[in-house]
What does this fold into?
Amino acid sequence: MIKRIKIIIEYDGSDYVGWQNQKNGKSIQGEIEKALLELFNKKINLSGAGRTDSGVHAKGQVAHFDIDEKNIDIKKLHKSINYILSKNKNRITILKSSFEKNNFHSRFSVKKKKYVYKILNRATNSYLYEKKVWFIPTKLDLEKMKKASSFLVGKFDFNAFRSSHCQASQSIRSVEKIIIKKSKEVIDLNFVGKSFLHNQVRIIVGTLVSVGRGKIKVDKVKEILDSKDRTKAGPTAPPDGLYLEKIIY
It folds into this structure.
């Protein structure tokens, strides 16, 4: 009998080409599939909740796979996968493994995704945060960033905030929440929505940082959104500060 297994994954994406299998380097998906091959001695295809780009991290990525095996200790499975991942010097951890019904799909069953983008905002850099945040030495105006972000909450055509390489057939998306908080020297920009366009979160962050720096006026963000023109938005924030935090089903 074929069993469907869900795994929750945490990873440091710094040294990977991203989630999806690619020919030009190590991917998160590829390394977990290698571990499954070693564990079960058969090729297993892994389906993820969503792609993360090269350098992007995850605290709660979700994936599933199907397998025809009788004796699987589901409580220990994630530990067995972790042993192989660690042996192969991966910075990937399977946090949990569980059996799911066959109609569960890691991607198509998603109700919401939560992302957080981290900015280190102080005068001097920190090697403790290397490849984990966007370091910005100039002080950002958080109040302006919060006001500007309010224009981007709702259902809109986000064409101005997507990569030119985005393959989505249409650019209408719903952003449920954007919450900006600062704790000491670190600014967290939290995003909640069902799905996001390629680089959408990073372009929004880059635009809001430009507002915080005084390079883009607060009200201009609404004009950028309405323009549907990528050239009018801010830069794409680096991948280092982005984390896929949680998938909600």
Summary: The first helix runs from residue 28 to 40.
